[in-house]
Amino acid sequence: MNAATPSSEPVDPADRNGTFRSESLELALAAQDAAAVAFALRHDVVVVPKLVLPTDSSGTSDTAAADAAPSTGGPDDGALPDEGDQVRVFGRENTDKRILLLFSSDDTYAAMVPDDPNRQVMLYDALSLRAFLEAHLDVIEQVFFDIAGPHTMAANPEDLLKALG
């Protein structure tokens, strides 16, 4: 099989060897090809920002964690999210609506939040992304891919659900 030809078999996120990147999504975004983006989301993974709380359970700041290098993922460092992991979403002031930001790699997320000392990500496959969107469809108003560039695209959540099949 030609390396440039995407496989129709889904990629197992647990078998990524610590790689937080979807080359097929990256190429689809570079081409600004919505059909290729949908294909990549159905058959590969997408990098999703992980919500990281700034304080520990006692309510005090965890300076050791804040001083550490940015992390990618939880204890399994790259497989599908653990049960307690939460997606980091972004909101506009004075509204209860949220924006979901998805990335082709951890590097493109880092470009958006370069000064975040505790940046963490998870990998979502099509089933995980679909479940998240279905559970939060009432509050997610827009989805952006690689918002810091260089090849940003946007979709409304309903269209993205349709694209996921």
Give an overview in words.
By secondary structure, this protein is of the alpha+beta class. The protein is 30% helix and 15% strand. It is globular, with a radius of gyration of 16 Å. It starts with 22 loop residues before the first helix and ends with a helix.
Overview in brief:
The chain has helices spanning 23-31, 34-43, 63-67, 106-112, 126-136, 157-164, and strands at residues 46-49, 90-91, 98-102, 121-124, 140-145, 153-155.
Explain the layout of strands and helices.
Layout (H helix, E strand, L loop, with lengths): L22 H9 L2 H10 L2 E4 L13 H5 L22 E2 L6 E5 L3 H7 L8 E4 L1 H11 L3 E6 L7 E3 L1 H8 L1
Parallel strand pairs: 3-5
Antiparallel strand pairs: 1-4, 2-3, 5-6
Helix pairs in contact: 1-2, 5-6
Give the key terms.
single chain; 165 residues; alpha+beta; four-stranded mixed sheet; 6 strands; 30% helix; globular; disordered N terminus
Radius of gyration computed on alpha carbons: 16 Å
* Mass-distribution shape: globular
Q: What value does the average pLDDT take? A: 80
User: Separation of termini?
Assistant: 25 Å
